[in-house]
Design brief:
4-stranded parallel beta sheet; alpha/beta
Length: 370
């Protein structure tokens, strides 16, 4: 009933207040967010099924974003929050590189000491890369590791080597390890932002995405501050800018989604203009590629023709002129006149062979007669 009253009030206020500016950055209504937060808290307290969840850090409060268009590329937006989502004893896992000349146990002790010296108070489980490859190689071990921790961090030096060892379930559950530079001078600040903040994954497979921004154990003011900080960060860092945001809801794990922002039709016109520009740009690029391919094909045809002409010229130059190998018969000139050229010796031998053959045949005939 409370949530229904809030929804009706939101629809009325939508037409009485202007919640957006003509710029890409969106001006969100803080009073509207405050009303949604109070409605959610009242619903959670009145719900008997949420008593068990309240004992375990409360229910997660999340923002549900719906976009006008599906993004072309996936984007991860890190959102620092003024009030952390995790306590000092939160479940955080850190994947580190293997230190030279150290065993896995020695590497764990080395990095735990490093975190303590740098002033990091959160309880962080350290897993060296070699331990991840050996002890967590089976499928069941990876699933158990995924369920034991809420946040995963990775040493920036081994970030590119992790995907083939952690498996696809980390990506499906949106628990991809966040990269952190363990050699940074501001390690405590960077770790605190990652642990107490949150990450929004904008998928390129759909128009909706969700991010956790608070929990029901917080006060109403803390929840409002976290929601407003997350909204401003998302509108500033979203690749498609604030034009692409259609509607934003605030919800808990068991409640319905309460709208806290909705864009008017002016944003739809801007999106259509962006689509037209994209189509024109795509058409221009296509024509440019076609012209380039045509020029290349013409150039190739011209080169092949020139090569053929050159080959024909080379062939004609390589064919030798026919020169006489023997002198004509009546070539020798003397005082008495033309002399007959001497016959080759091969002719004499041939005549002798023919003569001997005839003589042999005669002898054979004579013997036959006798």
């Amino acid at each position: 009933m409370l949530l229904r009253k809030y929804a009706c009030a939101f629809m009325l206020s939508r037409y009485t207040c202007n919640m957006e500016s003509p710029r890409d950055k969106i001006d969100f209504d803080r009073s509207q967010v405050k009303k949604a937060v109070h409605a959610l808290l009242a619903y959670i307290k009145s719900s008997s099924s949420s008593l068990k969840l309240l004992e375990n850090d409360g229910q997660a409060i999340s923002l549900l974003l719906t976009l006008w268009t599906i993004p072309k590329k996936e984007q991860n937006i890190r959102i620092p929050l003024p009030h952390g989502l995790r306590t000092e004893s939160g479940d955080v896992c850190l994947f580190t590189r293997d230190e030279p000349k150290m065993t896995s146990e020695q590497t764990v002790r080395f990095y735990k000491k490093l975190l303590k010296v740098r002033g990091i108070q959160n309880a962080i489980e350290v897993i060296p890369f070699n331990m991840l490859k050996t002890e967590y190689k089976p499928f069941e071990a990876k699933r158990k590791l995924l369920g034991n921790f809420d946040l995963f961090l990775s040493d920036a030096r081994i970030r590119r080597r992790l995907p083939s060892h952690i498996g696809k379930h980390f990506y499906e559950r949106k628990k991809v390890p966040l990269s952190v530079d363990l050699e940074s001078k501001h390690l405590a600040r960077d770790m605190e932002r990652l642990i107490h903040g949150t990450t929004l994954t904008v998928s390129n497979k759909g128009s909706c995405c969700m991010v956790r921004v608070a929990h029901s154990s917080m006060t109403a003011d803390e929840m409002v501050e976290n929601v407003m900080t997350a909204l401003s960060t998302i509108s500033a860092k979203l690749a498609t800018s604030g034009k692409n945001i259609k509607i934003i809801h605030l919800k808990s794990q068991t409640s319905v989604a309460l709208p806290i922002y909705t864009s008017d039709l002016s944003h739809l016109a801007l999106v259509e203009e962006a689509r037209k520009e994209a189509r024109l740009t795509k058409g221009a690029q296509k024509r440019k590629r076609e012209n380039k391919n045509t020029e290349v094909s013409k150039l190739i045809t011209k080169e092949t023709e020139e090569e053929k002409d050159g080959e024909e010229e080379e062939i004609s130059q390589l064919v030798p002129f026919e020169t006489p190998t023997k002198k004509p018969k009546w070539e020798i000139i003397s005082k008495k006149g033309l002399k007959k050229a001497p016959k080759p010796a091969a002719g004499k031998v041939l005549k002798k062979i023919i003569k001997d053959t005839k003589l042999t045949k005669k002898i054979q005939r004579s013997q036959h007669v006798i």
